[in-house]
């Protein structure tokens, strides 16, 4: 499985590599959300992810920020990478035909002496779907993003949501932080990732976070059920072209949460359900029957293999969600700030401890149980509760 690193040798950073050299190891994930919606700079999330330097090797890192563009919150922000000016102009022409283009601008970037290879051109477009897409705006944007990533040579869409953006690239977490000037941005919800690519090459577009519309994920682990999961999401119109198992997690959650409007706890149970024998041992009741139905109806969505993920959404209020596989073969730690206003997630407790008094209470979420926290929602679930604990579930058999 392991191969030689070719960091810096790929001269078209927005184009997927033509070869699949692999390095299997670990990833670092970090996330935070301010429950009162207060925006803050990327300094703390950068400090958290850079602390876990042993979890990276310079092949990729990235950040996602939610609440970045309140003055354009009703527009989709397409955050893009280009190999050259020709690709940029082809994308501008494409977007001009498919969208109402409100504004575009070069993404601020800064020279980083240690960043190997030629970086891509970084640009963002603020767009609105045409009037004929009214009522199906999200699906229309998603279809155009898939076309851009699969068919427009030398171009890659890093993110496509409203009032948010993804910043990522082929480098160490501190290099990508400095390259984009992450400390200059302010947002109430942040994700950060540093990676050892598990079963995918290191290239700019292949770094985490992975995004579709208002949902972004960072992932540590390996999805051994990738083939089944990929066929499941492709039945619903998703296109998997990013050379990684992680993108199926993003597409599965977008399908369950946005398209099918499942409650978050149900969507999480679909991806990491309890074992059948554990369901059989539960007391009779609505929760037991609901879990049985989830396992039957969402069998192809179930993720096998070791994983921990942090997910950011803004389908309604900006929300942070974290969970692991059913055996917790990959680590996840949660914490709150001293004042209770901020919720943190990370691969290791050291990323929380480095914050000092900013983060005081840390705990370990249980295997397969989600942590859920959101702006205006508070800490909804700690990830230590039983499935659907505290909820009244009425389940009527047909």
Commentary on this structure:
With 398 residues, the protein is an alpha+beta fold. The protein has a single domain (27-382), classed as Aminohydrolase, N-terminal nucleophile (Ntn) domain (Glutamine Phosphoribosylpyrophosphate, subunit 1, domain 1, 4-Layer Sandwich). It contains ten helices and 19 strands. The strands form four sheets. The chain has a seven-stranded antiparallel β-sheet with strand order 8-3-10-1-16-15-17. The protein has a six-stranded antiparallel β-sheet with strand order 11-12-13-14-18-19. Strand 15 and strand 16 form a beta hairpin. 51% of the residues are buried.
N-to-C span: 48 Å
Q: What top-tier CATH class fits best?
A: Alpha Beta
Q: Identify the overall geometry.
A: globular
The mean pLDDT is 90
State the CATH superfamily name.
Answer: Aminohydrolase, N-terminal nucleophile (Ntn) domain
Which regions are unreliable across 5 or more consecutive residues at pLDDT < 50? Answer: 1-9
By DSSP, the count of extended strands is 19
Portion in helices: 10-25%
What sequence of helices (H) and strands (E) makes up the elements?
Answer: EEHEEHEEHEEHEEEEHHHHHEEEEHEEE
Keywords:
disordered N terminus, globular, alpha+beta, 10 helices, 398 residues, Glutamine Phosphoribosylpyrophosphate, subunit 1, domain 1, six-stranded antiparallel beta sheet, seven-stranded antiparallel beta sheet, 25% helix
Summarize the model shown:
The chain has 398 residues and is α+β, with helices and mostly antiparallel strands.
């Amino acid at each position: 499985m392991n191969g030689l690193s070719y960091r810096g040798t790929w001269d078209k950073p927005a184009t997927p590599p033509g070869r699949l050299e692999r390095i299997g190891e670990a990833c670092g994930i970090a996330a935070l959300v301010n429950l009162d919606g207060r925006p803050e700079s990327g300094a703390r999330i950068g400090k958290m992810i850079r602390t876990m330097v042993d979890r990276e090797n310079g092949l990729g890192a990235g950040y996602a920020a939610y609440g970045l563009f309140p003055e354009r919150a009703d527009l989709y922000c397409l955050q893009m990478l280009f190999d050259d000016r020709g690709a940029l102009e082809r994308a501008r022409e494409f977007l001009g035909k498919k969208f109402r283009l409100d504004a575009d601008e070069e993404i601020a970037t800064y020279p980083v002496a240690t960043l190997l290879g030629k970086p891509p051109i970084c640009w963002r477009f603020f767009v609105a779907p045409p009037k004929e897409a009214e009522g199906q705006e999200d699906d229309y944007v998603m279809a155009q993003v898939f076309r851009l990533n699969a068919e427009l040579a030398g171009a890659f869409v890093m993110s496509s949501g409203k009032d948010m953006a993804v910043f990522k690239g082929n480098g160490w977490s501190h290099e990508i932080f400095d390259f984009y000037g992450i400390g200059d941005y302010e947002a109430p919800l942040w994700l950060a990732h540093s990676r050892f690519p598990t079963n995918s090459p290191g290239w700019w577009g292949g770094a985490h976070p992975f995004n579709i519309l208002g949902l972004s994920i960072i992932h540590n682990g390996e999805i051994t059920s990738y083939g089944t999961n990929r066929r499941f999401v492709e039945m619903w119109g998703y296109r998997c072209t990013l050379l990684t198992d992680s993108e199926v997690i993003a597409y599965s959650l977008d399908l369950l949460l946005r398209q099918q409007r499942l409650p978050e706890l149900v969507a999480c149970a679909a991806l990491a359900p309890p074992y059948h024998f554990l369901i059989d041992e539960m007391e009779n009741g609505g929760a037991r029957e609901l879990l049985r139905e989830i396992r039957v109806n969402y069998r192809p969505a179930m993720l096998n293999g070791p994983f921990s993920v942090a997910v950011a959404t803004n389908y309604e209020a900006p929300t942070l969600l974290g969970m692991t596989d059913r055996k917790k073969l990959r680590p996840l730690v949660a914490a709150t700030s001293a004042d209770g206003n901020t919720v943190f997630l990370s691969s290791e407790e050291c990323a929380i401890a480095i914050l000092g008094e900013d983060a005081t209470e840390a705990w370990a979420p249980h295997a397969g149980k989600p942590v859920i926290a959101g702006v205006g929602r508070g800490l909804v679930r700690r990830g230590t509760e039983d499935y659907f604990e505290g909820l009244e579930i009425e389940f009527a058999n047909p």
